[in-house]
Automatic annotation (TrEMBL), chain A:
InterPro entries: PPR_rpt, PTCD3, Rib_mS39_PPR, TPR-like_helical_dom_sf. Keywords: Mitochondrion, Repeat, Ribonucleoprotein, Ribosomal protein, RNA-binding, rRNA-binding, Transit peptide, Translation regulation. One of its GO terms (molecular function) is ribosomal small subunit binding. Residues 599-610 have a biased composition (Acidic residues). Signal peptide: none annotated. This is Small ribosomal subunit protein mS39. Belongs to the mitochondrion-specific ribosomal protein mS39 family. PANTHER family: PENTATRICOPEPTIDE REPEAT DOMAIN-CONTAINING PROTEIN 3, SMALL RIBOSOMAL SUBUNIT PROTEIN MS39. GO terms for cellular component: mitochondrion; ribonucleoprotein complex; ribosome.
Amino acid sequence: DKLAVLQTLASTVNRDPTAAHYMFQDDPFLMPRNAGNSRLFSLSKESGRNAAKYIIKQFPQYFDKIFAEPNIPCLMPEALTPQIEGVSEEALKERINLRRVKDSVDLFDQLVQAGTPVSLETTNSLLDLLCFYGDGESTPEKQEGQKEDLEEPGRYLLLSSLTFSLFVDYRENNNAERIFKIMPERNAHSYCTMIRGMVKHGASAKAYDMYMDLLNERHKADVHTFNALITAVPYLKERFLERWELAKVFLNHMVQQGVQPNLLTFNALLKTLRRCGGVGRSMSLLVMKEMEALDIEPSLATYDHLLFIFYRGVDLCPPGIILEVLDDVEKRSFTPQDPDDANFFATAMQACCDLKDIKLAYRLNKAMEKGDNWKFLDMDRLNAYWSKFFSLLCMMEQIDVVLKWYKEMSLSVFYPTPKNILDLLQALDAANHLEVIPSVWEDMKQLGFSRRQDLLEELLSLMSREQHPEEIQLAFAKCADDIKAVHEQTGREQAPLEWTGSVLCHVTLLFSRVGRTQDAWNMMERFQQINRIPTEQVMDEFLNCAKQTNCSDEAIKLVKLAASLGLPSSQRLKSRTEKEFELSEKQKKTLESIKSDSDSSDSDSDSDSD
Amino acid sequence: MVLRRVKKDGFEYIATLQRVKKVGFEDIACRKEESGKVCGSLKEFPEDSVDKHHFYLLEPLVWEQWLDVCPFCTTALRRVKKGGFEDVATSTRRRGRAPQFIRSHVPPRTERMAVDQDWSSVYPTAAAFKPASVPLPIRMGYPVKRGVPPPKEGNLELIKIPNFLHLTPPAIKKHCAALKDFCTEWPSALDSDEKCEQHFPIEIETVDYVSAGTSIRNPKARVVTLRVKLSNLNLDDHAKKKLIKLVGERYCKDTDVLNITTDRCPLRRQNYDYGIHLLTVLYHESWKTEMWESEKTEEDMEEYIWENSCSQKNAVETLLRIKASENVSNVTKEELLASEVVKNYRNSVIALKNEGETENTMSQYKESVKKLLNIQALP
């Protein structure tokens, strides 16, 4: 094995807990900062690669010089121009091999018009080509003409288990149907290809009709056709029981025609059962038993469908099913056998979160790290998986375990979502570990969440709830400073964030508690700008702060403000100021004058109420 | 702190909160971020304080590189463009090179690295030096005037040179432990150097080259070096001398090692075969004696041989004459040659010629001549 030495050396290396994924440049300005960024960067890398491949394919004449010594054939452009000219069956075969859909159709038409008989095999392979690629070309740039027909954006959703819409791009009177109709003789293969193509492109009813034709002609369908038909069942019938009955019909036909089901058959069956509601729940276990009886190893897609059937409903089932599933998944390392395999881990983690079971989540995580199983999670799914896992951890685990996972995994394997940050803050609150909050704020800034109102409110309310020892208070005040800067920035890119009343209250409190009287007073002045009133607590704290720093001017200004706003507590504040501060004569006079204002306003209101 | 050049002869450092006068080139301001005040004037700092040191070092660094933060006291630096008044303490305008979209400062990931992290995971393979990933405060390069070498951020010198951050001793230990499974046991019979030499006297040295590029070939890889000790070859005296004459410079007298380096063929295997062929030919040729070798003259000799040399002739003649003048009966040449004094003389002459003139050999010669000619030491 040529790679054995490299693989052994690679086994000595572990994961680096501070680095981003290895595909990104390892530079602080070029690393992705949050989930959106990482998705964007990885997609742009991939699109760059695709663009390069496209250029090489389109202009192979510029890439004929061989630089590498020795030559690497797979990097050189392939010669994809058809060699055989003229109208003949060999030419048609060649174009089919090169996947040139339009050319092959044209050539076929020419052959038919010229009267040359085209053999059944070639026609079948032409049908295969057409059904696989739909009616369009295999290369995307020639599809511009066809895209105009599909105007609704919803139709671009791909067939996936997350959304239920099928990519419907089946057009009437397309080439495949036409060729099928003019074929002098058809065998089972022709029918099967047509059925599979129709199901792939969304014409389920037509596929069913074609199947009926096949039965009438006494042909036998193959296992792939049956798989396609079973996949199309949810689009043929509406009610759950009817769907199941139809699927059973197909299965019986399989038995009659002696077709052996394979893994994909059962996966298709379970996928149909996903959309059968309660019927699904009762029948899926029977399906699993059949699989065991036929000695077919379930793949991850099987388990994904199972978990979805049982754990995505409104009422939660007991964890028996998921325990059995985990037992099996833990034991082995899976290879991809079905496109839906990739969704397993996300669904399983969602189920663990719904059941609120942390031990299951740990087992699932271990299973994911075993062998090749981690390869099933790409960037998107990885982030979703880890963010669910982290939410569960925050809910259920001790704070030091949570912080350990956070330090190791966040910003390198996954990027916390706003919900994750909220969960983390709540966990810190529950464990009374509020001194970690400034570092969480740093991470928030890096992730780009520093403008989210909900996170800011949560953060500030936690910081300002109680009095804390000195250094922590200073750190909190620094965070408050940053938050103030966010609200005030003379942005070239973004408008400054609007102040809200509670945010302003909290910031003022934090400034007051560390004795930054001037800053706190600046904050107080903003209350009027946004038409809000500071709470009692804020004003009391401010007075305390002013007392500590001996700023009696500020105290008087506060009383003036309170009086002008007509607050009921202004009297109390005034008396406090008089008692606790050492006022000069001038200040005492000013204080007196304020009193008269408030009195007059009171008398006015009295007269109004009369 | 505002630095201002007043006259051409020297710098004068002034700190004011007021306007900066237009002087003719750029001024620099160092503003403390927390309080919004500027650093004090130079006069305020005591003679040997660190901050005064900062001022002297600050200016050239800011001239040479655009620094955001004073690297010594971590206060923010700002360049104030020449011309025009600018109120240093309160102005927030950034003139000159302020970019349109400023990315907020991202802390490098060295700050989040644990002290006991696994370094071989950070640098598993040979990679360029990444200043944000290596938590070492390295400086490299020619120092700026009256300053220090530039720091590691954006330092091309550090990136150009090859580094061995991926081969720290713990990493090598891990690699060796992992590769042990691929290795066979060292044969237990070969447990010392002498035994290795005895069983495998010829050493072959070849070099493999790996580089990142379009081609895996390297012309230097064809060179093959053969090394063998002549004591391991079966040579008699004549053969050894002839071999040494044939190879010339390739033989090292001190270590008795013959080095043959071949690179005349394009492939390594061919060069190896050629080297072995050369060794075989030399060996066989040195054992043969050609006819013309008998014409070897005294200049071709490698070492001095006393027999049949003029020294022998002279010594014998002199002794014969002495004996004749003393009227002793005819003694034969052989008796003379076999006598003690002549033998002594012979040894000392040989030593003198072969080993060169040292204290030892000279004194030995003196003694032997005295004995030969029966001379007493001078009083």
